[in-house]
What we know:
Elements: H1 2-18, H2 21-26, H3 28-42, E1 45-55, E2 58-66, H4 71-78, E3 84-92, H5 97-100, E4 107-113, H6 114-117, E5 125-129, E6 132-137, H7 142-148, H8 151-163, E7 167-171, H9 174-192, H10 202-210, E8 212-219, E9 222-232, E10 235-243, H11 248-252, H12 255-269, E11 274-280, H13 286-292, E12 297-300, E13 307-313, H14 318-326, E14 329-332, E15 338-342, H15 352-362, E16 370-372, H16 375-380
Helix pairs in contact: 1-10, 8-12, 9-10
Amino acid sequence: MRKLFELIRWIWIEVQLSSPLPVQKRIIPYLHKAKDTVRLLLKPYLTVYQWRGRNEGGPLTVSYAGLGYAASFLKSILFMEEPTVTEVKKVPIWQPGGLANSPGSDIVVIEATKRLVRKLPGKNAITLPFHVGLVLDVRGSWEEVKCRLRRDARRNDLRTVKKYGYDYDVSHNDQDLDMFYHTIYLPTLKARYPKLASPMSVQEAHQYFRHGQLFLIKRDGQYVSGALCTVHHDGVIRRSLGVMNAEERLIREGAQVATHYASIHWANRQGYKWVDFGGCWPYIEGVFLYKRKWGSAASVWPESENRQIWIKIQRDTSAVSQFLKDNPCVVVDNEGKLRVLVVPDDPDSVTSETETRWHKQYAMPGLSGFLVRSVKDLVDN
Length: 381
């Protein structure tokens, strides 16, 4: 059975990478929708779990049901430590009201297809895109592209690349890919996400490699980091990256930064239109902010546009308030636009200085402003 799933995934990736542009634009999005639909049809119910734990505000109880892709990430931002998990009930997908009805919880989280989310009640709820895509426009001269980067990227990151004399090679050699996979990609992934169950397989890496190239970053003649990318008609998509043996010193000295520089610089010189930094969770935290500073614009990530995260705030507790204040997020408003949700202590007392700070911290192309709410607003919505 495992080999069958690996074969299906291999075919799935190959179809997406090798299909003509009209197919990719018109058919592939429907295949993504069909994949999640088939998964639900094979298992036509969602299991509701109750997560119990604490954050800095106190005890927190969360009901969760869904496809399971985002569960580990959601636990990491909701709780200080791994919560206790209890299976509560199974709800058929044709009775979505049973998912939202969890009276014993402070927050209800449902991760599902857009079609199912639309059937959930809107009262006390916010809807998040499953992933936010971040894409940089690399058209024009190299100086024009550099001007699109945020000031901290130009002032700090590009200077670091220059300071340590990083350069890059573009490789199409299978041996280089194997070296990248085992000594750069896997160590970096395991260091960053030690609980990740399923990293990209070496077979998948070779699939991406056949439809793209490998950027290998060198310093003093030695490879220190790299990035695997695919070429997608008029743009470049980042698939994976890392530094040699996940060495912290290399990260501090900009070896990972140099992978961003290499892909952007190469795409611009080759006449491509954009570089896709990949999807981020819709919470504006480390990875999101890191990719934002490279001048990218936000949108719903095409590869997961059929999924959304629905969150209902049921109680105004100190733990709920702490979670919302600590985790500004990207939400989908009633018009389908992406906005940043911020939850201060008192929205009526927000100063112009605070609004300016929010704009500097979170604003970017593709985000249509801010939604400023209190916990009480969300509970009483």
